[in-house]
């Protein structure tokens, strides 16, 4: 770990100003991913701005029936919040499937979105990695050789979708490791951002990006911006949802493949559908046109299969991870089947 | 073949230390720490509270679990300077007036450890879990204790010990 | 008297462990301590062409950077670097020269005033290499394996026996044949405590070394030889070890580096390895095994061929006993057991819990299951049909005791095996296929020499000491029990100390031999002390023991009593008082009875029964229920022994389903070198587990009749799980770990 200076602003304006300063500064909230990466020399900020005292730590109901999750609310407090449990159980499930109770007590909603890939080659500065090369999200000098070690290497946990740049070349097959972001993608959350030039919002689908030829950029936030909140729209799919996560052990492991599903049902007929995949791409993977295939259909396996095929269309395996293509399809079928049944909580609430 | 790693940027002088006070187990510890000292290293190397263990230093094992304002966290992935106004509880602070905390006693009774290295983290984690109030079943205990690795494989006895304290039927 | 032996006493070190008072190697915060951080090589083979430490040294607070260029002189000959667990060859020497022999090799040690400074400066050490192509993949060299170099180690881990009959011919002619190849990758011990040595630099250069080790004597010998220091200038202390599983059988390089730095700097130094660096020394080697079994139509085995190929380093020939177990378990007129090695650009492998045993049995016990299916026999029935009372790998000698039949019977009963439908895919629950599998386990009941010392203290308490270790095994507790019973003392008046080279010497703690080895030494020391105390009691004025022989008295409740008249008694405190208030000490040595041992094979046995649930779509496997029935001689403490067996079973689940250190052979580097990606079970992976200790009386193995329980709980589990997965799914999987993609 390199030395750094430490500051602890108490209002958002000061925090953003400090970030815009000359130093290679980074915000620290939960710290669970940043300090991990600093210890292995992948991240080298020379200033840490502790934002834990900023007033961004509440969960508030919105007039439109939605919910606003403060960026600094911890993952645990979010998952166990009565309104989240009640209206957005898909989000609770996803958060609680991630990491450990200790880490969820530390990690914040904002930080969760910006955790970096678990690619072995990214983490090991002796190994080639294109993502570790300098980029605006990092600002630090490139660490270690360029290239992609995972291509042709050990890539069990790597991406199968969206890996190609526009010219057909592949520069990075890392995945985004967040479970929460997958659920937020299915829920179509909106990200609130502030920066020196004011506030703006982004759809969660536009926050993260595919690697293309610039894999050093995980997301589209500008270097001087701060996420202040995550807004959940009113539609929470509390009756029909599932977060299904498949991994190499029962808990405390990152997803090989995960599926977030939210359905609206009218009897046996699906009237609205959302699907997002985790563990398969550089960002949570969603295809609205695949979701459209479900509308007006009954919840049966033969209606699910085309959705799985559509979501995995164009998937490419790189050897160790090729099994993910089939696994993801099977997971989609199972998840849609499970979500089409009414959730236990929904049954309880309706006295069924 | 020539393999060369680019030289890292040289920093100026390492970060300066500053006096900070950590309140651990109700006792204020006045320490001189640089920002880069983790809470775990502050406890072990500066406050001489070595009951909290370092098992990986990367949040992947849970051996460093302590309670901060009653909540269990991994002390290895947080900076000491971030906690100058918090109440920190470590394994050394669980017994009161010489009497073991019920979880500590249950761990002995159920032989819920072997080498003992993950044990302080397991116990702090169990205490934190009980505080959280999210456990309904034994399956919940197993899931919510999964952030604490035990290489000796004492899990069945750890679960038995916690179930006894929580008055849960461990066979279900 | 057996008041405590056989009783489930709670761990005597429990209080220290649950309160955080138990101190491990990196927790002795001696005054004026400095911190060393190791810089590791990033290439696998080649040489260092440039090592620029100037930027590291320029950091305020950095004291020194040690490299091969400035290291002090150490011993010249290989022999000085050999330890008690060295395989044949030339031991690795840290910072010896510019040659790189394996990836992760230490190339520099940065010593600074604080840990954080050392860690930072280590990142500033600039190393350039000239790399050569490396060769690390055993699978590419299966045709060029060779016989291992024999060595002293083979006394404990014998090489394969001579073949019997003509196994190739008998297999070719067998009416029922089973042949398959079994593969597993490398694994690392990964105890929860990372390797560390704290070296306290004392007056006149006296070194007190707090080391993570399975044997302080081993560390002491290594340090004194490598650095040519007199024995009386070093003390090695290790009261608590945060797990080891074999990784502490050899002194690791942090010990060498910490001692070197302390001597050069004349300062106290601590060197702790990082979790990533826990992949930079010994491991369980990858093996490829071929097992061929032939039987008659009735299931009688007529041919066994078991061949294992394993990887070792370029500098030492590490071997395991992989194939011999097959011969010890199954009788055959024709048997060929072979074990071959290939030297690769990796570090020397190192015994890891049940070394060789779990490897070999994971293959042969799956082969046996598959063969039973071919014969249409129940796998348990097949094993009973081919049960042996003699060990053909050791000149057909009998076993000193073998209650494996009882393991089968009691385990099967507890599990409900008789209700099993042999048909694969015959049980299911929702999306889950359910399967039941079983397998046999066997491990050595070894004993080696050891010493102990027993002291009756001035206040009439018993203090026993031996320089052994407790790596979580329960040594503290069971030795206290043995001592208390031998001298008839209340257990609260007995204290056992270990892990200090000022104590009588004991061997490294491994091979499940500590209960038998140190236990026998403790018994011997206490027996000798008892005789001395009795002699002294006879000299007490008006002693009730005048004219009485040692066999006529009992030691009970802190007193010596006449058997035929218990009111005739002398308290041990009186004896001390008679001694002028001075403590009374005796030492004891235990040496295995080699004459008796030569006549018998001495083994612990087990049977594991397992239920799995396999998700038929995803291939995820959950071990929902497991029972081990264990015959391991006398069980000193059923509570700690049960923990040992359950721990072994958890390791079995890990070995079968999760663990593997994956190397990128292009670079010769382990890629999943952390606990997030090197998977070992978490609490949620472990469900119902049970242990049955089968009564077994053995008068040959050692005076206590104990066989050890450190490894026997592990060896049968992986095969039982793989067999259960077959029963659930109808699919045989020959490569461990069985991750979901291999099943789906």
TrEMBL record, chain A:
Keywords: FAD, Flavoprotein. Residues 1-237 form the FAD-binding PCMH-type domain. It comes from the Bacteria. Pfam families: CO_deh_flav_C, FAD_binding_5. GO terms for molecular function: FAD binding; oxidoreductase activity. SUPFAM superfamilies: CO dehydrogenase flavoprotein C-terminal domain-like, FAD-binding/transporter-associated domain-like. SMART domains: CO_deh_flav_C. The keyword Flavoprotein applies. Gene3D superfamilies: 3.30.465.10, CO dehydrogenase flavoprotein, C-terminal domain, Uridine Diphospho-n-acetylenolpyruvylglucosamine Reductase, domain 2. PANTHER family: OXIDOREDUCTASE, XANTHINE DEHYDROGENASE SUBUNIT C-RELATED. This is Molybdopterin dehydrogenase FAD-binding protein.
UniProtKB/TrEMBL annotation, chain B:
It comes from the Bacteria. CDD domains: fer2 (cd00207). Keywords: 2Fe-2S, Iron, Iron-sulfur, Metal-binding, Oxidoreductase. One of its GO terms (molecular function) is oxidoreductase activity, acting on the aldehyde or oxo group of donors. Residues 18-94 form the 2Fe-2S ferredoxin-type domain. The keyword Ion transport does not apply. Coiled coil: none annotated. It holds the Pfam family Fer2. This is (2Fe-2S)-binding domain protein. It comes from Fibrisoma limi BUZ 3.
UniProtKB/TrEMBL annotation, chain C:
InterPro entries: Ald_Oxase/Xan_DH_a/b (IPR000674), Ald_Oxase/Xan_DH_a/b_sf (IPR036856), Ald_Oxase/xanthine_DH-like (IPR016208), AldOxase/xan_DH_MoCoBD1 (IPR008274), AldOxase/xan_DH_MoCoBD2 (IPR046867), AldOxase/xan_DH_Mopterin-bd_sf (IPR037165). Pfam families: Ald_Xan_dh_C, MoCoBD_1, MoCoBD_2. This is Aldehyde oxidase and xanthine dehydrogenase molybdopterin binding protein. GO terms for molecular function: iron ion binding; oxidoreductase activity. PANTHER family: DEHYDROGENASE, XANTHINE DEHYDROGENASE. It comes from the Bacteria. Residues 19-133 form the Aldehyde oxidase/xanthine dehydrogenase a/b hammerhead domain. The lineage of its organism: Bacteria, Pseudomonadati, Bacteroidota, Cytophagia, Cytophagales.
């Amino acid at each position: 770990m390199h030395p750094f200076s430490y500051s602890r602003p108490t209002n958002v304006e000061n925090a953003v100003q400090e970030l815009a300063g000359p130093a290679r500064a980074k915000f620290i909230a939960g710290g669970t991913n940043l300090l991990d990466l600093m210890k292995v020399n992948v991240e080298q900020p020379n200033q840490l701005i502790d934002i834990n005292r900023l007033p961004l730590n509440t969960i508030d109901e919105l007039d439109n029936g939605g919910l606003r999750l403060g960026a600094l609310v911890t993952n645990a407090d979010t998952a166990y919040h009565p309104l989240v449990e009640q209206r957005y159980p898909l989000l609770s499930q996803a958060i609680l499937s991630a990491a450990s109770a200790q880490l969820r007590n530390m990690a914040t909603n904002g930080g969760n979105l910006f955790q970096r890939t678990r690619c072995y080659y990214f983490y090991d500065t002796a190994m080639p990695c294109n993502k570790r090369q300098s980029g605006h999200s990092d600002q630090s000098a490139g660490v270690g050789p360029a290239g992609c070690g995972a291509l042709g290497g050990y890539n069990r946990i790597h991406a199968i979708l969206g890996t190609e740049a526009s010219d057909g070349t592949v520069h990075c097959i890392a995945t985004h490791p967040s479970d929460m972001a997958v659920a937020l993608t299915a829920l179509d959350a909106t990200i609130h951002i502030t920066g020196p030039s004011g506030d703006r919002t982004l759809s969660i689908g536009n926050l993260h990006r595919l690697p293309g030829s610039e894999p050093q950029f995980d997301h589209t936030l500008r270097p001087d911006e701060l996420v202040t909140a995550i807004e959940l729209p009113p539609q929470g799919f509390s009756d029909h949802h599932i977060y299904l996560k498949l991994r190499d052990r029962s808990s405390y492991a990152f997803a090989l493949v995960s599926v977030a599903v939210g359905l609206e049902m009218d009897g046996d007929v699906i009237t609205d559908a959302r699907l997002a995949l985790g563990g398969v791409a550089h960002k949570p993977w969603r295809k609205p046109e695949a979701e459209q295939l479900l509308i007006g259909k009954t919840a049966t396996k033969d209606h699910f299969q085309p959705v799985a095929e559509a979501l995995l269309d164009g998937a490419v395996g790189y050897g160790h991870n090729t099994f993910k293509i089939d696994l993801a399809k099977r997971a989609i079928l199972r998840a849609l089947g499970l979500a089409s049944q009414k959730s236990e909580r929904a049954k309880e609430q309706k006295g069924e | 073949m020539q393999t060369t790693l680019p030289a890292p940027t040289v920093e100026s002088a390492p970060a300066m230390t500053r006096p900070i006070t950590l309140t651990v187990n109700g006792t204020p510890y006045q320490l001189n720490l640089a920002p880069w000292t983790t809470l775990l290293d502050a406890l072990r190397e500066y406050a001489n509270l070595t009951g909290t263990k370092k098992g990986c230093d990367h949040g992947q094992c849970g051996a460093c679990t302590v309670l901060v304002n009653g909540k269990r966290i991994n002390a290895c992935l947080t900076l000491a300077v971030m906690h100058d106004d918090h109440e920190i509880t470590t394994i050394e602070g669980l017994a009161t007036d010489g009497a073991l905390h019920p979880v500590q006693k249950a761990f002995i009774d159920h032989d819920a450890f072997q080498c003992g290295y993950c044990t302080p983290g397991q116990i702090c984690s169990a205490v934190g879990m009980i505080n959280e109030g999210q456990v309904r079943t034994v399956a919940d205990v197993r899931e919510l204790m999964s952030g604490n690795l035990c290489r000796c494989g004492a899990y069945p006895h750890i679960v038995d010990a916690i179930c006894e304290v929580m008055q849960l039927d461990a066979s279900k | 008297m057996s008041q405590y032996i056989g009783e489930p006493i709670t761990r005597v070190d429990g209080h220290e462990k649950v309160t955080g008072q138990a101190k491990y190697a990196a927790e002795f915060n001696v005054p004026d301590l400095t911190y060393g951080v190791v810089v590791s090589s990033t290439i696998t083979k080649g040489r260092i062409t440039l090592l620029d430490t100037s930027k590291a040294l320029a950091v305020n607070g950095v004291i020194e950077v040690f490299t091969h260029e400035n290291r002090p002189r150490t011993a010249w000959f290989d022999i000085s670097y050999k330890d008690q667990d060295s395989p044949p060859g030339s031991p690795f020497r840290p910072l010896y020269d510019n040659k790189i022999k394996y990836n992760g090799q230490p190339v520099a040690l940065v010593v600074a005033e604080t840990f954080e400074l050392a860690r930072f400066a280590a990142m500033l050490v600039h190393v350039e290499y000239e790399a050569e192509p490396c060769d690390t993949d055993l699978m590419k060299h299966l045709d060029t394996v060779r016989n291992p170099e024999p060595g002293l180690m083979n006394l404990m881990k014998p090489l394969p026996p001579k073949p019997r009959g003509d196994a190739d011919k008998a297999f070719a002619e067998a009416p029922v044949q089973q042949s398959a190849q079994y593969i597993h990758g490398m694994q690392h011990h990964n105890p929860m405590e990372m390797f560390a040595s704290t070296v306290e630099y004392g007056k006149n250069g006296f070194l007190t070394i707090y080391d993570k080790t399975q044997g302080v004597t081993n560390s002491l010998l290594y340090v004194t030889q490598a650095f040519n220091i007199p024995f009386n200038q070093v003390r090695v202390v290790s009261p608590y070890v945060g797990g080891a599983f074999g990784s502490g059988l050899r002194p690791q390089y942090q010990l060498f580096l910490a001692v070197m730095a302390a001597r050069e700097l004349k300062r106290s130094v601590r060197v702790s390895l990082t979790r990533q660096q826990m992949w930079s020394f010994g491991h369980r080697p990858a093996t490829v095994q071929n097992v061929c079994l032939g039987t008659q139509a009735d299931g009688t085995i007529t041919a066994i061929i078991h061949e294992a190929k394993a990887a070792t380093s370029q500098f030492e020939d590490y071997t395991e006993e992989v194939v011999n177990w097959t011969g010890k378990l199954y009788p055959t007129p024709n048997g060929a057991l072979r074990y071959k090695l290939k030297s690769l650009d990796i570090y020397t492998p190192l015994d890891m819990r049940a070394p060789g045993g779990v490897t070999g049995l994971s293959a042969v016990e799956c082969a046996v299951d598959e063969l039973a299916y071919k014969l249409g026999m129940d796998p348990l029935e097949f094993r009973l049909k081919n049960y042996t009372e003699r060990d053909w790998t050791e000149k057909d000698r009998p076993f000193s005791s073998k209650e494996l039949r009882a393991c089968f019977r009691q385990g099967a009963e507890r599990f409900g095996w008789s209700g099993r439908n042999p048909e694969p895919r015959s049980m299911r629950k929702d999306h889950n296929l359910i399967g039941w599998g079983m397998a046999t386990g066997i491990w050595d009941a070894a004993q080696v020499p050891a010493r102990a010392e027993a002291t009756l203290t001035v206040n009439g308490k018993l203090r026993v000491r031996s320089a052994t270790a407790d790596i979580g095994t329960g040594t503290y507790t069971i030795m206290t029990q043995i001592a208390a019973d031998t001298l008839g003392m209340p257990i609260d008046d007995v204290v056992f100390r270990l892990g200090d080279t000022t104590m009588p010497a004991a061997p490294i703690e491994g091979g499940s031999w500590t209960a038998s080895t140190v236990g026998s030494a403790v018994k011997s020391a206490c027996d000798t002390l008892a005789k001395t105390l009795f002699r002294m009691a006879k000299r007490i004025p008006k002693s009730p023991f005048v004219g009485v022989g040692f066999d006529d008295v009992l030691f009970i409740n802190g007193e010596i009593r006449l058997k035929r008249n218990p009111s005739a008694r002398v308290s041990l405190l009186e004896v001390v008082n008679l001694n002028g208030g001075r403590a009374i000490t005796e030492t004891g040595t235990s040496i295995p009875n080699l004459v008796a041992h030569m006549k018998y094979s001495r083994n612990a046995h087990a049977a594991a029964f397992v239920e799995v649930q396999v998700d038929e779509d995803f291939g995820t496997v959950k071990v929902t229920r497991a029972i081990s029935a264990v015959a391991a001689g006398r069980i000193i403490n059923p509570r700690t022994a049960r923990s040992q067996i359950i721990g072994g079973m958890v390791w079995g689940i890990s070995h079968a389903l999760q663990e593997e250190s994956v190397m990128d052979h292009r670079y010769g580097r382990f890629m999943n070198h952390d606990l997030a990606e090197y998977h070992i079970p978490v609490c949620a992976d472990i469900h119902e587990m049970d242990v049955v200790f089968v009564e077994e009386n053995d008068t040959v193995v050692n005076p206590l009749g104990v066989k050890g329980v450190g490894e026997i709980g592990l060896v049968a589990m992986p095969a039982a799980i793989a067999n259960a997965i077959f029963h659930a799914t109808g699919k045989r999987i020959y490569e461990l770990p069985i991750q979901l993609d291999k099943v789906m």
